[in-house]
Amino acid sequence: MSKLPNISTSIFTTMSQMANEYRAINLSQGFPNFPVDQKLKDIVIKWTQEEIHQYLPMAGYPPLLEKIAKLTQDSYQRKVNPSTEILITAGATQGIFAAIQALVYANDEVIILDPSYDSYESTILLCNAKPIRIALNEDFTPNWEAIANRMNSKTRMIVTNNPHNPTGKIWSEQDYIQLEKLLDLYPNVILLSDEVYEYITFENKHISIHQREKLWHRSVSVSSFGKSFHITGWKIGYLIATEQLMIEIKKVHQFLVFSVNSIAQYAVNDYIDVVKVSELGGFYQQKRDFFRSLMQETKFELFPCEGTYFQVASYGHFSNENDLDFAKKLVTDFGVATIPLSPFYAGGKDVKCIRFCFAKDDETLIKAAERLLKI
């Protein structure tokens, strides 16, 4: 008997497998295909020659915890205690799993805003808790009236994702004000703030939970070095939470991975000193603008992209196919792999949209656009 009877192979795995099978250009799974910074490679080479190959402390390499505290202070003016309020995780997904497992109990309710990352629901179900999935508005902003209507005494947590995958939407100041007003009514609700694309925003800067002092005592933030530094395969991220919450999260974390890869932690610790995270948004904004310019002559209607390295496009005005069939057709007939949005919705809601990943080199984006022009 399965603990997750309705969970099957993820859409990311399915589309990447199809891309390989049909030798399609893969704009589906969210990973860059351009080289990692040579400075980071050189740092890794140096550390592989040192005797640093054994376990690090469970919470993380102490100098790296200090660097994260400084990064948080510099980026958001929030002072955190590196020894009690930061945890290095084996990627953001593991951090999300540990936080939900530690803080959510059987029969609790957890609010998720759809379209949503697929790991949220499965982790909640493994707690014998109930995911409450609420669709965002048509422009992918939060529907605060709908959220308020589903909050009750059983609500234990609300999961937010900002900047948002898959839509590229970022929250406004007004969204945070609405969230704070709502949480005032439910003092026991915890906020899990997934901010893995925090340094990849464009015209409007990302507003972080770290800038909302009123919510610090009840929030867990999720960050990703993999996303920020284009090293998704390293699977390294971190959580920030108050000591009271972090004590419980660490209890779960220690039995999942105990400690995270030592070479990765040493390397990231050095790399933070030579990289400017403030410039990451500009780098990806050039990618976004280039891809959007290439797509102007295609049939697709592009939604605004305010952050992340994803571009959502609508095709409903020229095809009635469901989004999964349409995405598969793009692979088999046109040689481009994308991600349909329906797997991000409860019940597979089909909004006739697909997601492109533009974290690719220019040659890849050009070739993909040339194929999409044939539709």
Describe the structure.
Belongs to the class-I pyridoxal-phosphate-dependent aminotransferase family. With 375 residues, the chain is α/β, with parallel strands linked by helices. It folds into two domains: 11-30 and 278-372, Alpha-Beta Complex (Aspartate Aminotransferase, domain 1); 39-271, Type I PLP-dependent aspartate aminotransferase-like (Major domain) (Aspartate Aminotransferase, domain 2, 3-Layer(aba) Sandwich), CATH 3.40.640.10. Helices cover 38% and strands 15% of the residues. The chain has 13 helices and 13 strands. A seven-stranded mixed beta sheet has the order 2-8-7-6-5-3-4, with helices on both faces. It has a four-stranded antiparallel beta sheet with strand order 9-10-13-12. Strands 1-11 form a two-stranded parallel ribbon.
What's a concise summary of this model?
The chain contains 13 helices and 13 strands.
Labels describing this entry:
375 residues; alpha/beta; Aspartate Aminotransferase, domain 2; 13 strands; globular
Blueprint of the fold:
Layout: H1 11-21, E1 25-26, H2 38-48, H3 62-76, E2 86-89, H4 92-103, E3 109-114, H5 119-125, E4 130-135, H6 144-150, E5 155-161, H7 173-184, E6 190-194, E7 219-224, H8 225-228, E8 237-241, H9 243-256, H10 262-271, H11 280-295, E9 301-302, E10 310-314, H12 323-334, E11 336-337, E12 339-340, E13 353-357, H13 362-372
At CATH level 3, the topology of the largest domain is Aspartate Aminotransferase, domain 2
In terms of DSSP E residues, the strand content is 15-25%
Instruction: Give me the secondary-structure category.
Output: alpha/beta
Order of helices and strands: HEHHEHEHEHEHEEHEHHHEEHEEEH
Number of domains: 2
